[in-house]
Amino acid sequence: MRMHRTIAVFAVAVATLVAGQSAPADASGSGPRPGGRFTVDVALDGSTWRMDDGSNPFFPMFTGALARGNTFIVSGKIYPKGTLQSGGDFGGGANNPTGPETAGAIGTWVCRGTFNLDIGDIASGGFPHVTSTQIFTFDSGDVIVTEGPEGGAEVLRAVVGGAGRLRHARGDVVETPLGINTSNLFNVRMRFRLD
Questions:
Q1: C-alpha–C-alpha distance, residues 145 and 148, integer Å
Q2: What CA–CA distance (Å, rounded) separates 63 from 71?
Q3: Looking at residues 15-22, what average pLDDT do you find?
Q4: Could you say which DSSP state residue 87 is in?
């Protein structure tokens, strides 16, 4: 009887341990994991940018029509860490590193926000350019939502929630600009640390 009880307690302990483990990353090792660290690249798609008045100051060419208080929405694609390259310039077109046309995306990204600065302040080095909400929707069905500053420098943002396996997500993410892609918008790298 005592042996059966010991085996039962052991079985429950193993089951509890297995259930409490973090979910595995996707096959690339770059996908979301509750309670873990992972890194992804994001290619913003310049053709999807819209300001509150319906204009697009980035595509096909950068116009500089940006002002404090302007609101916007933009989409992009999520890739495994290291997929996207640095470099590029506004107006560089095909000479810039590849962007959202790159094969191998593992999800979609949407960002909505408000400009903190006028174009003159941005041009003179002011940052952060915007305060925004970013929604990362992975092909696995998992979702992460972040809030915070971005633009002009590496920034720290808050992970404020999620859905799917990441429904209890909290932590932070470091956003690092990589450069300008073929869609005349940014490639960025996101390093997540989830509690």
A1: 11
A2: 16
A3: 33
A4: B
Task: Give the tens place of pLDDT for each residue, 80-101.
Answer: 999 999 999 988 888 889 999 9
Fill in the amino acid letter for 58: F
pTM: 0.83
Two structure tokens written together for 128? 């952060």
Taking domain 24-194, whether its CATH number is 2.40.30.10 is answered by: no
CA distances from 7 to 12, 15, 18, 21 (A): 9, 12, 16, 21
C-alpha 13 chain-centroid distance: 36
Give the count of beta carbons closer than 10 Å to the beta carbon of residue 124.
9
Rounded Cα gap, residues 83 and 42, in angstroms: 9
CA distance 23 to 33: 6
Distances (CA, A) of 3 to 10, 13, 17, 24: 10, 15, 21, 34
Cα 105 from Cα 139, distance rounded (Å):
9
Residue 148 corresponds to which tokens in the numbers above?
Answer: 């915070």
Task: Give tens-digit pLDDT for 129-147.
Answer: 999 999 999 999 999 999 9
Domain boundaries, given as residue ranges, for the chain:
24-194
